[in-house]
UniProtKB/TrEMBL annotation:
Pfam families the UniProt entry points to: Hydrolase
Organism name: Parasitella parasitica
Gene3D superfamilies, sorted: HAD superfamily/HAD-like, Putative phosphatase, domain 2
Organism superkingdom: Eukaryota
Coiled-coil boundaries: none
Record-linked SUPFAM superfamilies: HAD-like
Protein name per its UniProtKB record: Glycerol-1-phosphatase
Underlying gene: PARPA_13534.1 scaffold 46959
GO MF terms, alphabetically ordered: sugar-phosphatase activity
Length: 225
């Protein structure tokens, strides 16, 4: 494992699996839907992470795939906190970055993202790129391009933090650098998706602001790619 450094002017974070881990809840959420509709839960779980709920429903249970139903499902899920944690290193990273220089791009709805951040006293960005405001989910780059627009930065100025191959692919397709965490997927999967750097958790990452307004990100214990 090696130490690497990256330069950027802004940061875009995926939410679930990157900032916050809701894995037990997500597994139960999709398993319950699968069992109710006589679908193998493993098949849904293999394809759901990092993708918008409405897209997963369209594939497996199309009769449930309405914006109203998704908002209802995610609104209820967001209120459940059992087993949900902030991942290691996240709070230190966010405290190292000016509030105007970071935002979130998530497959979840704005209600879901806002509720999750507030549950852990994380300042909610003024604007986020959330699944309910996008036409295309990851691996399409729309969400990351929208996030760069929110930050008023060029895509090449943004550094992304992700955990899912579809998210990594979206970030790279948007023309951004991407640090991927192995929270939910293997090094091999994240490498195949094109991640710039891969670490186990964000407590291996430090961000320092520079006098010119840019940032230097130092990654310890990065996997050799």
């Amino acid at each position: 494992m090696a130490v690497q450094t990256l330069k950027s002017n802004a940061f875009i974070f995926d939410l679930d699996g990157t900032l916050i881990d809701t894995t037990p809840q997500v597994i139960k959420f999709w398993t319950d839907i699968a069992v109710e509709h006589n679908i193998d839960p493993a098949k849904i779980l293999e394809t759901s992470h990092g993708r918008r709920t409405i897209e997963t429903l369209q594939r497996w249970v199309p009769e449930l795939a309405t914006i109203e139903h998704v908002n209802e499902l995610e609104g209820k899920l967001a209120l459940e906190k059992d087993g949900v944690i902030v991942l290691p290193g996240v709070m230190n990273l966010l405290q190292s970055v000016s509030a105007k220089d970071w935002t979130v791009n998530t497959a979840g709805t704005n209600v879901m993202a806002t509720t999750r951040l507030l549950q852990f006293n994380i300042q909610v960005p003024a604007k986020m790129a959330t699944g309910d405001m996008l036409t295309h989910g990851k691996p399409h780059p729309e969400g990351y391009l929208k996030a760069a627009e929110i930050l008023d930065k060029k895509p090449s100025e943004c550094l992304v933090f992700e955990d899912a191959p579809s998210g990594v692919q979206a970030a790279i397709a948007a023309g951004m650098q991407c640090i991927a965490c192995t929270t939910t997927h293997t090094v091999e999967q994240l490498k195949a998706a094109g991640a710039t750097v891969i670490v186990d958790r964000l407590n291996s990452v430090d961000i320092v602001g520079n006098e010119d307004g840019s940032y230097t990100t130092t990654i310890k214990n990065a996997y050799d790619l």
